[in-house]
Amino acid sequence: MSVLSAIGLRQLLIEPRHAPGRPVRACNSSHSDRPLISAIIQTFHDGANARQLVRHLRHAAAAYGAPGALEVLVNDDSRSDSAAWLAELTGPNDFLLSSPNIHEIRAYNRLARLARGDYLLLLQGDHCLPPTAAWLRTGLGLFATFPRLGLLGGQMGYDEVPFRRIAESVSWGVEPCKPIPFRVPAGSRGAAAGGSGDAHGGAGAAAGDGAAGSAFMFVAGVNIGPLLVRRDAFLLTGGFDEAFSCAGAPGIQLDTELSLRMWAGGYQVGLYASAVSNGVGGRKTRYAFVIISNVTIITFNTGEPDHGAGTRGTICYGG
Question: Residue 292 gets which letter from DSSP?
């Protein structure tokens, strides 16, 4: 790829276009051309969880005190819960996409190209977020601490690929997986705090102070939900592989494949303890769980219904 085409690709994917020499207009709008975080939510019949999820997102992002720090992009794959999501998507950078059940791979890829944030926060519509902002501050702080970090998982990570199911015996993270054995030492913030795509140097660098002492480790791969990823890294490595499944079918191991491609592309992949849990509404089954603080932390999901045991869901507190 020529230098010119490489620059053009980065301009097309990453940066809003501003013609050289043309002054930027002073617009009377609260819309942000470059927010810090683009939260992308893939949902299917999770409208009852919209209030909790979006409001806890806004609370966490508000901890940075920067106007326009967050945009929320939702793909309603069921085409049935638009009203519930629109009631919460009141920000000037919020968007709702109504899709005919295209499923997660294509939804995340499509909305990642719509996003403008430096970081993508990939969520599911049934996620339960902690009511405090520490989980997000720590996550962004890790990107400031480790400038080559491209992808960060918040629940489970592994160095052996669990081919048949997500196996806690080869994984670190939430129980009954092995606990993350390492902590970030104080004063370890990288020289390039904020990372390769961060246009919010002040917010990103300040967040780096919040990573010290947090549980963190580098891993070969992470399990989806939640995932924090540099938007430029996601787009320049090609996003999720759409050959993994047809539209309307789940993309099993999409997260592992992306993790390995991140490493191959010169980025690092890490795991931390986010305390974000999934399963609100009881659609996902065959879980083991443990109560931590004010949320139920889901430990694993085989992806198969457990008809004998019945359906179990997450208890989510704090509104």
Answer: E
Phi-psi region of 153 (alpha: psi -120 to 50; beta: other; left: phi over 0): beta
Please give the span between the terminal C-alpha atoms of the chain, in angstroms, as a whole number. Answer: 50
pLDDT in tens, 264-293: 999 999 999 998 987 665 444 323 332 233
* Residue 181 half-sphere exposure toward CB, CA atoms < 13 A: 4
Residues 82-117: tens digit of each pLDDT: 999 999 999 989 999 999 888 899 999 999 999 999
The number of beta carbons lying within 10 Å of the beta carbon of residue 252 is: 14
Q: Which domains does the chain have, with CATH numbers?
A: 31-277 (3.90.550.60)
Tell me the C-alpha to C-alpha distance, in Å, between residue 47 and each of 120, 129, 275.
21, 15, 22
Cα distance between residue 121 and residue 55, in whole Å: 15
Residue entry with tokens 């015996």: 169
